[in-house]
Amino acid sequence: MTTIVNDNNNNNEKEREKKNNDVDEQQILLRIELLIVNTGDLFKDTKIIYETLLNNCNHTNCSRATAGVGIEYILNKDLITSYNIEITNKNRKRQAQKATTEEENHHNNHHAKKSKNDNIYQTMLPVTATSCPAPVYFNAVFAWVKQSINSMEKQRTNPFSNFATNNYFFNSFLETLKKIYRRLFRVYAHMYLQHFQEIRALDAEAHLNSMFKRFVFFALSHDLLNRTETLPLDNLIKAFVRKEGTRQQQQRQQ
Ligand SMILES: [Zn+2]
Fold first, then answer.
1. Which residue ranges form the domains of the chain, and what is each CATH number?
2. How far is the centre of ligand 1, averaged over its atoms, from the C-alpha of 175 (Å)?
3. Which residue has the higher pLDDT, 67 or 163?
4. In angstroms, what is the span from residue 181 Cα to ligand 1's centroid?
C-alpha cells in the first residue's frame, strides 16, 4: 500500500516537474523570439538611417571607419566573410535579373534597377583586410548582422533544434546578439561623431535621436551592450537616461 502511494506521489512530482520545465522552455522561447524580432527591427532602422547618409559617407569623406578622435573600427575575418558572401549573392541576383530582363525586353531594363548599395558591394575584400573606408566597414557589418539574424531565426523555428534547452546554443545565441549590438552601436557612433552637421542639415537630428534612444534603451535593458563599448557616446546616453528618468518621474506625479 505504502509503495503504491509513493509511486503516485512520484508520478505527480514528475508530472509537475515536466510541466514546470515546459513552462520554462516556453518562456525562454518567447524571450528568444522577442529578442530576435526586436533586433531585426532595430537593425533595419539603423541601416535605413545610415543609408540616408550614404552620399556623404563615401570613400573620400570617410576613408576610415572612425568614431571621433582615436577610435577606428577595423575589419575582422567574420565581417570580411559576410561581406564577400553578400557580394556573391548580389552578383548572382544581378545575373538572374539581367537574364530575365534580356528575355523579357531588350529595351526595357527597369527590372535591373540599381539600389544605392549596389555601388558599395562590387569588389571582394581580401582576407587580410583591416582598415577600410567607413562605407565598406558598415556594409560589412550590415551583411554580417543580416546573416546572423537569418541564421538565429532558422535555429529558432527549427522544430528539431533544442535552442531553448541546450545551454551551449543559448549562450552562443546571447554572444552573437551582444556582438550585433556592439557592431550596430558603431554605426551610430560614426553617424553622431562624423556626420552630425550633415544630419542637422538634413533636418534628421530628432529622427536619429529617437532611433538611437530606442536602440540603446533596448540593448541596455536586456544587458546586450557593454558600457565600455558605448564610451564614444556616453554623454549622449547619460543625457537620454536622465531625461527619461525625469519624464517617468513627472508621469508618476501626475
Ligand atoms: Zn562616414
1. 36-75+132-253 (1.20.140.30)
2. 27
3. 67
4. 19
